[in-house]
Amino acid sequence: MMDVRIGLLGLGTVGAGVVKILESRRAMLEERAGCRLAIASVADTDLTRPREGVNLTTLPMTSDAARVLDDPTISIVIELIGGIEPARTFILRALAAGKHVVTANKALLAHHGAELYEEARRRGVTLGFEAAVAGGIPLIQAVKEGLVANRILSVFGIVNGTSNYILSKMTDEGIDFSVALEEAQARGYAEADPTLDVEGMDSAHKLQILVTLAFRTFIDVKDIHTEGITRVTQQDIGYARELGYRVKLLAIAKASNGGVEVRVHPTMIPAASPLAAVSGVFNAVFIAGDAVGDLMFYGRGAGQMPTASAIWADVLDVARRIAHDVPALALELPSAGPGALPLAPMDAIRSCYYLRVMAQDRPGVLSRVAGILGDNDISIANLIQKGRGTREAVPVVMMTHEAREHDMRRALAAIDRLPDVAAATTMIRVEGGPA
Ligand code: HSE
Question: Are residues 145 and 207 in the same domain?
């Protein structure tokens, strides 16, 4: 059996998981790859911080990434540094040197994927990124290979474990946002900069990658409408429950009217829907294809071992090809397809909406709010008013039928200008709502 030598850039949570998987099941992996697997070099800026379950003294550690990138005996580089630079430069160097690259770096692929895929294509090597989206769920493989016979109609779901963990804790245990975030960080789910998780950017990065594969179009990540969970309150979670809904951070891409709508935002979904039951760090993605129909993928979307499992899926695939002299195919890398759909403007989407208007409890207020909604072609499906405030504003909670985003924004601006309305109205989009 030949040796396939692997270099690792970044020994953090996932990197340590990659090492642990090889050490604990080497014989099985080597038998499946048909070659011996050797971690030839591990580069990290911190050579001494203990990594649980990893014996650093037995690892070929270096603080110099060039030891990985310039070693001609290394044929696969695993990039687990995260972020844009120096990860981008390192990957480009590895590809230029004819090395295959496996990465979990969703931010990098979302911003510079087109450049990196093109470079891999030019150099005749593979760029694997199964671990970049939905942690341990083999979703990339499924979209790239398993659904190749389909035109994809929609891809949507929960793709950020940290936000889902926080929302689940807030909903089920009444725990504060900040406490739940600290727990997610301690469990190794959160990004180095957790604002990427809670402001929705991590979901947008993953959605950009999924859209590239599913719709064969490169959307600029800056153009994805992105809202995070930082403004979701216990109050709105409570009203959602009362109305029979749960709040989830959803990433949504749908083919509609000759375009593709791509958005990330907190969303109310019916409590009885399968997505509502997806709790904690779990991710779930629904895909509709025109031949296959509806599919649901479910599993751990973050964490050391699930993500390392996805890394090994790619590494083994590449190692097997190297061992059996099967060249990388340019066709396997993402590219824009003929007739790629343009991004649909956010204003054009249609949705049901949850609104919480903070209004003075005076005669006529409700009719003024309802009048504005009616004037903007928005019909109310459900309404709750709690308490009676003679001095303080009280929440008036409404669920609308399906309406156009453009109309909703115009209506909200007018509602918030009413003298009886005391604070900016909270709006949460609803999927699977009253139609
Ligand atoms: N921070 C990410 C999450 C890690 O919480 O889902 C996995 O990509």
Answer: yes
Segment holding 230, helix H or strand E: none
Instruction: Answer whether residue 337 is part of any domain.
Output: no
Number of domains in the chain: 3
Confidence band of 390 (pLDDT split at 50, 70, 90): low
- Mean pLDDT of the 373-382 span: 97
Which residue range forms the structural domain that includes residue 396?
A: 349-430
The verdict on residue 343 lying in a domain is no
- Burial class for 407, CB neighbours closer than 10 Å (0-12, 13-18, 19+): middle
* Pocket of ligand 1 contains residue 202 by CB under 6 Å: yes
135 CB within 6 A, ligand 1: yes
Residues 23 and 94 in one domain: yes
Question: 106-123 and 87-96 helices cross at what angle (nearest 10)?
Answer: 20
> How far, in Å, CA of 138 to CA of 316, rounded?
14
Same domain, 119 and 145: no
Instruction: State the DSSP code for 83.
Output: S
pLDDT of residue 389 exceeding 80:
no
Q: Is 189 in the pocket of ligand 1 (CB under 6 A)?
A: yes
Q: Ligand 1 centre from 93 Cα, in Å?
A: 26
Query: Cβ distance 300 to 283 under 8 Å?
Result: yes
Instruction: Kindly state the average pLDDT of the residues 385-398.
Output: 81
Same structural domain, 174 and 268: yes
Instruction: Supply the pTM of this predicted model.
Output: 0.97
Domain CATH for 182: 3.30.360.10
Catalytic residue chosen out of the listed positions 99, 106, 206, 248: 206
Clarify whether 99 is annotated catalytic.
Answer: no
Look at residue 245 and give its three-state secondary structure: strand
Residue 338, domain member (yes or no): no
Q: Is 190's C-beta closer than 6 angstroms to any atom of ligand 1?
A: yes
Domain containing residue 411: CATH number: 3.30.70.260
Looking at ligand 1, which atom is closest to the CA of residue 307? 7
Q: Which atom of ligand 1 is nearest to the CA of 189?
A: 5
Give me the residue label for tokens 């099967």.
326
pLDDT band at 32, cuts 50/70/90?
A: very high
101 sits in which H/E element: strand 100-103
Confidence at residue 435, expressed as pLDDT on a 0 to 100 scale: 63
184, 289: one domain? yes
pLDDT for the residue 17: 98
Could you give the angle at the alpha carbon of 53 between the alpha carbons of 49 and 57, nearest 5°?
Answer: 55
Give domain status of residue 285, yes or no: yes
Residue 86 sits in a domain whose CATH number is 3.40.50.720
**The pLDDT of residue 339:** 79
Q: Is the pLDDT of residue 204 over 80?
A: yes
